[in-house]
Amino acid sequence: MVSQNLALRGHEENLNAENDKNVGNFLALIKYKYQYNPVLAKHVQHAEQNPGSVSYLSPEIQNEFIHILASTVESKLLSDIRKNKYYAILLDSTPDLGHREQLSQVIRFVDVDFQTKNVTIKESFLGYIEIHSKDAANLEKVIVERLKSDEIPLADCRAQCYDNAAVMTGHISGLQQRICDRNHRALFVNCDNHSLNLAGVHSAKQDPVVVTFFTTLESIHSFFSHSTIRWEELKRALPITVKRV
User: Which positions fall inside the DUF4371 domain (predicted)?
Assistant: First the structure.
């Protein structure tokens, strides 16, 4: 009897988990929370019994909640940055699944708590900026406008950090030089991770064994990816996916 009860309970939990998965994360969280909150439980019960009533559980309301939370977090981060005055900017771009170029904006600053006398280096991710051109002039315009809208003076910038792409690091018309022309105190620092990655790539190209290995991997991917039939055979034979080098 005990084993049967445990089995039934496990089956019920699986069904609940499946239902939670179907209704979405927000409604699943509400369903979990109202077990411990009588006020919320009463509200949800009223909404279920009166389909035409205002429930505040619609997708539009969910998006508004997310927007409010995001705005609150962003305001707090910007407040901390402004309070500590000097900062560094870290930027990098990459295409998303929708083939839109997204520029990530990160601000690094030294947070000083004068009451506890603690000094902490912090990095705050402020969001993504969709860009339509990756030339240095357009990137400069986007960054200057975003800093202005965030009310973070460019004059207080003391460092800028990007990858090693020529459009970012160029000493004549690259982004870092354009920012330096606006504020000569914004010193440019190469990203160590990108530098290490490039060093590894160039070092690997000097070793015949490594070159042969990666060339073989590329050939395998090319062979199977150019035929849907061969790709299906590969998927049936292996539990992993072959990717481009």
Answer: 2-174
Locate the domains of the chain by residue range.
2-57, 88-196, 207-237
Strand runs labelled E in the chain: 87-95, 101-113, 118-131, 157-162, 187-190
For 164-175, what is each residue's pLDDT tens digit?
888 888 888 899
What is the fold, at CATH topology level, of the domain defined by 88-196? Nucleotidyltransferase; domain 5 (3.30.420)
CB atoms inside a 10 Å sphere around CB 220: 13
Structure letter (DSSP) for residue 56: S
CA-to-CA dists, residue 188 to 45, 61, 84, 163, 214, angstroms:
58, 43, 20, 11, 34
Token pair for residue 62?
């969910």
SS3 of 124, please?
strand
> According to the model, what pLDDT value does residue 22 have?
55
Hey, is 97 helix, strand or coil? coil
Inter-residue contact 140 to 166 (CB < 8 Å): no
Burial class (CB in 10 A: 0-12, 13-18, 19+), 7: exposed
